[in-house]
TrEMBL record, chain A:
Pfam families: DUF2849. It comes from Sphingomonas natans. This is DUF2849 domain-containing protein.
UniProtKB/TrEMBL annotation, chain B:
This is Nitrite/sulfite reductase. Keywords: 4Fe-4S, Heme, Iron, Iron-sulfur, Metal-binding, Oxidoreductase. SUPFAM superfamilies: Nitrite and sulphite reductase 4Fe-4S domain-like (SSF56014), Nitrite/Sulfite reductase N-terminal domain-like (SSF55124). PANTHER family: BLR3264 PROTEIN, FERREDOXIN--NITRITE REDUCTASE, CHLOROPLASTIC.
Length: 92, 548
């Protein structure tokens, strides 16, 4: 599956396209199919995301799992500070 | 310590307001990210893996307790309660919000700090020997010259858009504690036969994709001509540097391609012209700057004996403390490398604690080292036990300076958007594997350096043992190299063989060090043994096949 991700313009937080908006939790992310780039462009123009791009992911038991380790770390937070990033928060 | 004059302060204040306006325009959508990015980078604001990252300049690694307290305050108020000291003697915050950035710079400006020259293709924040002004082996304090170069290079209109970033280091001693020869320009203060002060000028060193040790371009440059000569060095680079190819744009490639002799010839020719322009400051200006770096009043009759009956204190003393040039005094290095810790990270409380120690015991001065530690440069020997006690209380008394666990590690894939692999977990595993202090001390000086990509912010090329993280089909993989040095015997390490997994590389480091222990001769460091015997015994141990 293809996810759209980027950073929140103000906070810099990693965010994921949910189909109707953006979430900090990858569990909310949806497959953007072939629309990823167009979604990114549109949302960036509306200042709702900074630097959007498409990443490849696989279905996981609780949430999509990006294929590349860099995106997996973006999705959770620094592996050496598990008290920081979304990994430290309860997923809703 | 240098104190801002009205011009310095006005420049920094104006810069903050300019940046505030730029941030507002970005937040309102008036500017696109493509337009904003170069502007934010000129103010040290990057977008990294998890958030914006702000890199704060610590010119030549020197700061006072007021500035250090401010760094702690910003960590608490705007970030997540910690900061990361870098191999450029700077400090980075990893969790900054765009709408806080200008406020942070405004707070920094109140203590004469900023984030200028921490990014972009300009002359970057200048680095220096962390023992400057205190070292017993020093010809002269390099910091007045580093400050002069700061003033010359800040917003220098001709050098704001160089082919690539440009890094300068200045030292004043024979022992190179600043990896001077691995900089675009390395400057070493020396005296000539007549006793005059001048510089050895090295140009074209660097790490990254194409590591090179800088060749000597000028054996003796009179100290008063420094600005003119560097202006000439930069002009030749600015004119002929490879703007066509990002990977060939650093000055090291230019010097290498045309040769050191031809580069020198061109610089000398340009210098003849530049020298007529009157760029070098009048002697009075240099004296004004130098006066601000005068040695604090230290009593040469202060007692020199140290009570060593506490064995833990004695261990720390032997590892972290060296003599000051004034009798009865010492230079203390505070390790930011606890077992299992993140190299260079310090909590806001620890930053405050170090500021307080500087205020009480070190004439209000601290230094950041390129090895990601902190120095108290002017300490009475009689106060060492009290300092150690306080460091113990704040988890800052690890006695491992220059030992295998005193690892330089860049942020790597845990934070850095350019990374291929993580650096920090490797450092943690290695410090845990070698946690036994007796074992570390038996292994002696081992400079182990880790980078998460070929940009080499973790100085892996200059490691006695260097580790480089690479991406192998989406998986982290690590290349091991031996034989590098960032010291006066500078050299670039050589890759030993095929790469490893994370655990594999920790095992390989251990095998290499055990091999060294088996074949070293009296007084040899790991690096010396490697240089004497070459890679083969290490390769054999690391890549030996397990018996079938
Ligand atoms: S060496 Fe690479 S991974 Fe490490 S901080 Fe520099 S750019 Fe990032």
């Amino acid at each position: 599956m293809k996810l759209v991700t980027g950073n929140d313009l103000v906070s810099g937080d990693v965010i994921w396209w949910t189909g109707s908006g953006w979430s900090r939790f990858i569990a909310d992310a949806v497959d953007s199919g072939t629309e990823g780039e167009a979604i990114g462009k549109r949302e960036e123009a509306a200042l709702r995301v900074n630097g959007p791009y498409v990443v490849e992911a696989a279905d996981g038991p609780f949430a999509p799992v990006p294929l590349h380790i860099k995106e997996r770390i973006r999705a959770s937070g620094p592996t050496v500070r598990t008290d920081l990033g979304v990994q430290a928060e309860k997923q809703h | 310590m240098y104190k801002y004059d009205e011009y310095d302060q006005a420049i920094v204040d104006a810069r903050v307001e300019e940046f505030r306006d730029q941030c507002n325009r970005r937040l309102s959508g008036e500017m696109t990210e493509d337009q904003f990015k170069p502007l934010r980078l000129m103010n040290g604001l990057y977008l990294q893996l998890h958030a914006y990252m702000l890199r704060v300049a610590v010119p030549y690694g020197t700061l006072d307790s007021r500035q250090m307290h401010m760094l702690a305050h910003i960590a608490r108020k705007y970030d997540r309660g910690y900061g990361h000291f870098t191999t450029r003697q700077n400090l980075q915050y990893n969790w900054i919000k765009l709408d806080d950035a200008a406020d942070i710079l405004a707070e920094l400006a109140t203590v004469e700090m900023h984030a200028i020259q921490t990014s972009g293709n300009c002359i970057r924040n200048i680095s220096a020997d962390q023992y400057a002004g205190a070292a017993a082996d020093e010809v002269a304090d390099p910091r007045p010259y580093a400050e002069l170069l700061r003033q010359w290079s800040t917003f220098h209109p001709e050098f704001l858009l160089l082919p690539r970033k440009f890094k300068i280091a200045v030292i004043g001693a024979d022992e190179d504690r600043a990896a001077m020869k691995l900089h675009d320009i390395g400057l070493k203060l020396v005296r000539n036969a007549a006793g005059a002060l001048g510089f050895e000028v090295y140009v074209g060193g660097g790490q990254g994709r194409t590591p090179m040790v800088a060749p000597l371009i000028r054996e003796f440059l009179p100290a008063d001509d420094l600005v003119s000569y560097l202006e000439a060095c930069l002009r030749v680079y600015n004119r002929y540097g490879r703007r066509d190819n990002l990977y060939k744009a650093r000055i090291k490639i230019l010097v290498h391609e045309i040769g050191a002799d031809e580069y020198r010839r061109q610089v000398e020719e340009e210098y003849l012209h530049v020298k007529t322009l009157g760029l070098d400051p009048p002697a009075a200006e240099l004296e004004r700057i130098a006066a601000m770096f005068a040695l604090p009043p230290l009593d040469p009759n202060a007692p020199g004996e140290i009570e060593r009956s506490d064995p833990d204190f004695a261990l720390w003393l032997d590892q972290q403390v060296v003599d000051h040039k004034v009798p009865g005094h010492a230079i203390v290095t505070i390790s930011l490398k606890p077992t299992g810790g993140i190299p260079g990270d310090a909590s806001a409380d620890q930053i405050d604690a170090m500021a307080k120690l500087a205020q009480v015991f070190s004439h209000d001065e601290l230094r950041v080292t390129h090895a990601q530690n902190i120095v108290l440069p002017h300490v009475r020997k009689a106060d060492l036990y009290a300092i150690w006690t306080r460091l113990e209380e704040t988890g800052l008394a690890t006695p491992n300076l220059d030992l295998v666990t005193d690892i330089i590690a860049c942020p790597g894939l845990d934070y850095c958007a350019l990374a291929n692999a993580r650096s920090i977990p490797l450092a943690q595993k290695i410090t845990e594997r070698f946690a036994n202090l007796d074992r570390q001390r038996d292994l002696g000086e081992v400079k182990l350096k880790i980078s998460g990509c070929i940009n080499a912010c973790g100085h892996h090329h200059a490691g006695h043992i260097g580790i480089l993280g690479v991406d192998r089909k989406g998986e982290e993989n690590y290349q091991l190299s031996f034989g590098g040095s960032g010291a006066e015997d500078a050299s670039v390490g050589k890759i030993i063989g095929p790469g490893f997994s994370e655990d594999g590389v920790v095992d390989a480091v251990e095998k290499a060090l055990e091999t060294y222990r088996g074949i070293r001769v009296e007084g040899e460091r790991f690096l010396d043994t490697y240089r004497r015997v070459g890679p083969e015994p290490f390769k054999a141990a690391i890549y030996e096949k397990a018996p079938a």
